[in-house]
Amino acid sequence: MDLIQTIALAAGLAWASGLRLYLVVFLAGMLSYFGYLQLPATLAVLQHPLVIGVAGLMALAELVADKIPAFDSLWDSFQTFIRIPAGALLAAFALGEIDPAWGLAAGLLGGTITAGTHFAKAGSRLAINASPEPFSNWLASFSEEGMVLGGLWAMLASPLVFLGLLAVFMLIAGYVLFRLAGLLRRLFWRSAV
C-alpha cells in the first residue's frame, strides 16, 4: 500500500466512523476477509468473524435506531463517546507498524475528522428532528448510509479523489457546525431573557 492509499484509508475510516462506525467496521472486516481490501497487520483483527459478527449486529441496530425521530439524537449523543475514540484508533492503526509519534499524530487527526463528521451529523439530525414528519429523518439516514458506502468505494477506487472530496466535506461540515453554534447561541439568549 503506498502513502496516498494509506492516508486515504486512515482518513476514510475516521470520516466514515463519524457517520456509521459499526457499518464501517463491518464493511472493512468483510472486504478484508474476502480479499478486496488489504488492511495493515495492525487492523487485521477487523476480519475476525467475531468482530464482523458483532459489528454487523450493531450496524443493524444502528440502522433501525437511526430511523426513529428523536431516538436517533439520543443514539447519537450516546455514540459520541464511542465513535470519536474508535475513529481515532482506526486512523492510527491504519498506518500500520510505524513510529509511535506518527501513530499518535494520525490518531489525533483521525479523531478530529471523526468528531467533525459526528457533530455535523448529530447537529443536522437534531435540526431535522424539529420537523414533525418522519420522511426527512429517513432521507437523512439513508443518505448517511449512502455516503459511507460511496465514500469507502471512492477511498478504494481513487484515493486522491476521495481525499479531495473529504476536504470539501470537512469544509461543509465546518460551515454546518458554525451555523448550528449560532442557532444555539440565539436560542440560549432568547431563553435567558
Structure description:
The protein has 193 residues and is mainly α. Helix content is 82%, strand content 0%. The chain has helices spanning 3-33, 49-65, 71-94, 100-128, 135-157, 159-192. The relative contact order is 0.16.
Determine Rg (CA atoms, Å): 17 Å
The helicity comes to: over 70%
| DSSP helical segment count | 6
Number of strand elements: 0
Low-confidence stretches: none
Shape: globular
Content of β-strand? under 5%
Q: Which sequence of SSEs, written as H and E, runs from N to C?
A: HHHHHH
Structure characteristics:
82% helix; globular; 193 residues; mainly alpha; single chain
Write a brief caption for the model.
With 193 residues, the protein is mainly alpha-helical. The chain contains six helices and no strands. Helix 1 packs across helix 6 (159-192).
Set down the secondary structure blueprint.
Blueprint: H1 3-33, H2 49-65, H3 71-94, H4 100-128, H5 135-157, H6 159-192
Helix pairs in contact: 1-2, 1-3, 1-4, 1-5, 1-6, 3-4, 4-6, 5-6
